From TrEMBL:
<keyword id="KW-0560">Oxidoreductase</keyword>
<dbReference type="InterPro" id="IPR036291">
    <property type="entry name" value="NAD(P)-bd_dom_sf"/>
</dbReference>
<protein>
    <submittedName>
        <fullName>SDR family NAD(P)-dependent oxidoreductase</fullName>
    </submittedName>
</protein>
<feature type="domain" description="Ketoreductase">
    <location>
        <begin position="6"/>
        <end position="182"/>
    </location>
</feature>
<dbReference type="InterPro" id="IPR002347">
    <property type="entry name" value="SDR_fam"/>
</dbReference>
<dbReference type="InterPro" id="IPR057326">
    <property type="entry name" value="KR_dom"/>
</dbReference>
<dbReference type="GO" id="GO:0016491">
    <property type="term" value="F:oxidoreductase activity"/>
</dbReference>
<dbReference type="Pfam" id="PF00106">
    <property type="entry name" value="adh_short"/>
</dbReference>
<comment type="similarity">
    <text>Belongs to the short-chain dehydrogenases/reductases (SDR) family.</text>
</comment>
<dbReference type="GO" id="GO:0016020">
    <property type="term" value="C:membrane"/>
</dbReference>
Amino acid sequence: MRLAGKRVLVTGASQGIGAAAASRYAERGAHVLLVARSAEGLKRQVERITEFGGSAEAITADLANADEIRSLGESVEAPDVLVNNAGIGRWLFLDDTSPDELQQMTAVPYQAALLLTRAFLGDMRERGSGWIVNVNSPVSRLPIPGATGYASARWALRGLTASLRLDLRGTGVGISEVVPGKVSSQYFENNPGAEERIPRIAKLIPTVTPDRVADAMVAAVEKEKAEIHLPWQLKAFELSGRIFPGLTSYLTWKTGTHR
């Protein structure tokens, strides 16, 4: 899909991967709608984009709130590209996680992507064009110890992507899943203790920058790719989990967090 002149909606766009992706889409000539809770953060990103001549607007919304997602779907025209990037969640053992926090982890990213995609999907199918990008985590393939709620939500997002891919075949609407390894974003600053729970074996996978992930998110749409893993070491690790599931699971547990 050519991005010039298209409307791209990016969630979680006030910082990190979402902000970098919004800039990249704007550089390709798209009009970008940035969605997040932080009005101040969105304002900064819109200013950055307009400074280099890009086209962007901010939409403040809490995607953990189903009513706000409904309002967003009713007030905004269905974009040509929907990027479900918003995601939250700490890495905790299940019985160390409060019920409220578990519900919050489920609300974003999974429920937010589910409901927002539903809000725009009918119009996309009716016009016979559109693309959806779901940004996921490696734990949607290879769970790690001590991150049960977070991993569960990410597996649900993976299931949504795979199911939609079948439903959308032949409609003119496509879907991609972008799965980066550890990213040098604000996630680990916002979630103290998470970085220490990365299994030692996974630390062999190089860290990627938000800009590199943003490039992959653009490539997913332009090249209409079903799935992108980065860096390549993550893809190799993911393949090992398919070929040698028992060994990979054991090594992840052995080098991971224990009580």
